[in-house]
């Protein structure tokens, strides 16, 4: 190849540097630190430090409590969906797959999301009921990774969540053959209209193939950005018989 753009499939004639930010130089780090201290000074020290030492970030001993406190902080700073997480699964051949879903509950038993059990993710989880999650909150420059086993939530709990959703979202769940080929948008819209008419004066029941999934964590890793890629990492591993042990990891 005599042209870099051909290698990367670029169409615009611009080089990759135009879209991939350069790795920060010493000057960039110094500028970021100055900008951060200006913000803090103008905000009476209330501003949240993202580029420099964030202070004590591993504030709780229990990883679920720690996760909840980081999610609460992310909720104050993210532009939207602080509960969005990448969900990784594998297919029968071991080929990984990943997509975003929304966390709907988190507590001692694990992390919950809702989806269609006949979607690609649903079928992959049926074949291999193990998953990994990754949260990345750009605004606070933190990441949390979770690995664990997966099981379906009870019908009662799924019913309760389904009933709390807007009618439009309920119709969407019932009308969508999630992840299967759709010939044209109108087909989906027609299906929604049809179900809307069928359930005109009635509550929409939860479809059997739509329910909650619970990821029961065996490993949770917390990562926080530090200058020069010297990030802080703390990994919690579930101990047989109960409780968690934790270690720090090199960045
Ligand atoms: C921010 C975000 C949140 C999402 N949340 C969900 C969700 O909670 N449940 C879901 O089924 N799909 C959700 N999706 C759509 C999935 O990423 C995906 O397109 C869909 O579930 C089909 O995935 P699959 O073919 O691997 O099963 C979300 C997408 C984005 C970008």
From TrEMBL:
Describe how the cofactor binds. Binds 1 FMN per subunit.
Leader sequence segment: none
What would be one Pfam family of this protein? PNPOx_N
Q: Where is this region: Disordered?
A: 1-45
Look up the record and name the pathway of this protein. Answer: Cofactor metabolism; pyridoxal 5'-phosphate salvage; pyridoxal 5'-phosphate from pyridoxine 5'-phosphate: step 1/1; Cofactor metabolism; pyridoxal 5'-phosphate salvage; pyridoxal 5'-phosphate from pyridoxamine 5'-phosphate: step 1/1
Keyword Cell division on this protein? no
Record domain Pyridoxamine 5'-phosphate oxidase N-terminal: where:
78-196
KW Cytoplasm (keyword) present: no
Spell out the Acidic residues composition-biased ranges: 35-45
What exactly does this protein do?
Catalyzes the oxidation of either pyridoxine 5'-phosphate (PNP) or pyridoxamine 5'-phosphate (PMP) into pyridoxal 5'-phosphate (PLP).
* Protein name per its UniProtKB record: Pyridoxine/pyridoxamine 5'-phosphate oxidase
Species the sequence originates in: Aquisalinus luteolus
UniProt lists the gene as pdxH
């Amino acid at each position: 190849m005599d042209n870099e753009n051909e290698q990367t499939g670029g169409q615009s004639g611009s080089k990759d540097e135009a879209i991939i930010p350069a790795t920060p130089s010493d000057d960039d780090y110094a500028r970021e630190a100055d900008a951060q201290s200006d913000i803090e000074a103008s905000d009476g020290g209330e501003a949240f430090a993202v580029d420099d030492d964030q202070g004590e970030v591993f504030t709780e001993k229990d990883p679920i409590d720690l996760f909840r406190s980081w999610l609460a902080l992310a909720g104050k700073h993210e532009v939207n969906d602080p509960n969005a997480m990448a969900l990784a699964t594998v297919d029968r051949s071991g080929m990984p797959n990943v997509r975003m879903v929304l966390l709907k509950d988190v507590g001692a038993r694990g992390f919950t999301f809702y989806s269609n059990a006949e979607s690609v993710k649903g079928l992959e989880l049926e074949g291999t009921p193990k998953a990994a999650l990754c949260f990345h909150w750009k605004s606070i420059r933190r990441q949390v990774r979770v690995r664990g086993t997966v099981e379906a939530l009870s019908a009662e709990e799924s019913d309760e969540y389904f009933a709390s959703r807007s009618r439009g979202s309920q119709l969407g769940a019932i009308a969508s053959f999630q992840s299967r080929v759709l010939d044209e948008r109108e087909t989906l819209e027609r299906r929604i209209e049809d179900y809307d008419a069928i359930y005109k004066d009635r509550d929409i029941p939860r479809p059997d193939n739509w329910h909650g999934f619970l990821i029961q964590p065996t490993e949770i890793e917390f990562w926080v950005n530090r200058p020069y890629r010297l990030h802080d990492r703390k990994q919690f591993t579930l101990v047989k018989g109960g409780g968690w042990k934790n270690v720090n990891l090199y960045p």
